[in-house]
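User: Hello, can you help with two protein structures?

Assistant: Certainly.
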Amino acid sequence: MKKIQLRRLIREALEDKVKECPAPTQNVGLNTANRDRAIQADFIKYGPLNVEEPGDYWKKIAKKWDTDVKAAFKSRCANCVAFDISERMLECIPGSVSEPVDEPGTQKDIDKAFKDKPEVGELVKEGVLGYCWMHHFKCHSARACNTWATGGPINKDEDSYDWQKRNLKQAIDPEPIDPDLYQDDTEGEKKNESLRNWFKKEDWVRIDTQGNITGACGTMKKGKKTTRCLPRKKAQSLTKKQRAATARKKTKSKKQFVKNTKAAKVSLKKKKK
């Protein structure tokens, strides 16, 4: 068999895998393992357990994000960049795909919080089950976590397939995901400071494959391949060649989270007690 034929067969096989339902949507045990990890991990803390009786969950989230409770309350899975409720994904999820928020008081709080974006408020109240591409389990639109990021939800099949292509290993892996996933760049030191605070303080910027600083992190056009982000001071301390090397390492990988090169390595500073 010629190399070109082999490459075509491999490409076609991978394309088929990209269109498969993520393994956690088809395996209750796997979904539960990944969900429980997201609940227990300090850097995730998926919750609240009961959206109608959240206790002090939103206060803790607000403290973690260094914001007020009002802002934290509006940061839900429903409007997270990694929350997938595309048509193809809802077909992957067996059984009911919603667990509505029924308590009138909670509904009023949600309406008030999302009065400027009622469509998101309705999605929160409907309690839609979608797929989380960050932590790989079926999540509830009214819940949240410490790794929430604005820009969602994912509601187009083409965007859903793109996320699966970039997270293919985790999507088709029959085993629970690596407990250290998403801590590569910080080496697990995120115990004392949230990534959100870190991004805010360090002024993170985007680096292209030529080593240029091209703008603020998170400002890429939707659909473009993700480039490397670094704190501005760190980026400016590197040579253009060093910046290019870590950016190329990122773009060449099919993984969503890729370690920096040795020269570009960054880590959170531990707070003094």
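That covers the first. Now for the second protein you mentioned:
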Amino acid sequence: MAKFRGKNQSGWFVLLPPAVLAVAAGFVFGQMTLPSESVEQKPTNFDFLYVDYNPPTPEPTVIQKPDPLPNFPLDEADSLFVIVNKQRPLDPIDYTPETVVVESDSLDNGREIELAPIAAEAMIEMGKAAVDEGIGKLKLNSGFRSFDYQSELFIAKIDQYGEAEALERSAKPGHSEHQTGLAIDVSKPSEGCEIMQCFGNTDAGIWVSENSWRFGYIVRYELDQTPITGYTYEPWHLRFVGKELAEKYHQGEYKTLEEFWGLPAAADYLVPLE
């Protein structure tokens, strides 16, 4: 390393290699940065050198949705989650589920109403809760209905109300939730309004509306939902969907299963009544 004393200088200068002097000069002028090897940088003062500079377009983030409702078969007649309405008939159309008589001292089931075993067990639990919570015994008015029985009932409704009104009060055979063994009609005769819309205003009806989800049931045909469900308000008609799904339905404040599952409205039959 060479040293020399400059003219009229009292100190010594160190003669350094050019590369070292260049680094030192960078610090003197304030901002010397070494580009990262992993990041491609474009000089801001030499844009003319980068006429063809085209930074790569990042790939869009694609969220792969799971197979729609993989654990919730909505089309299978024997599924707990089957959706049956005016546009979704059961398959097979005359499907018959396994059923049992709902037997409980906490329920009025003089007609020996039957349900699918899992729905019957939940209704027994619900009946006990209604008694324990001061509502009293709920009456079971209708549960499982066969294809043939629903046919007779539907014809009777047409005779009673006429075709237009009957279509909003009863289902064609093969289109009824009762045929699945998962639907039940309840009432409290001592409060009146048995199988009537005013049941929704009784103590029993209010309790059913507010608490049925705790036992896996929902009020299937709620007020002002006819354009979606195709049926008038039925506060007595409960559909069993299981506790987990019923809780989500309740928490989401849904009014119809069609809305819950993102299905189209089913106000009318795909095939007109013949």
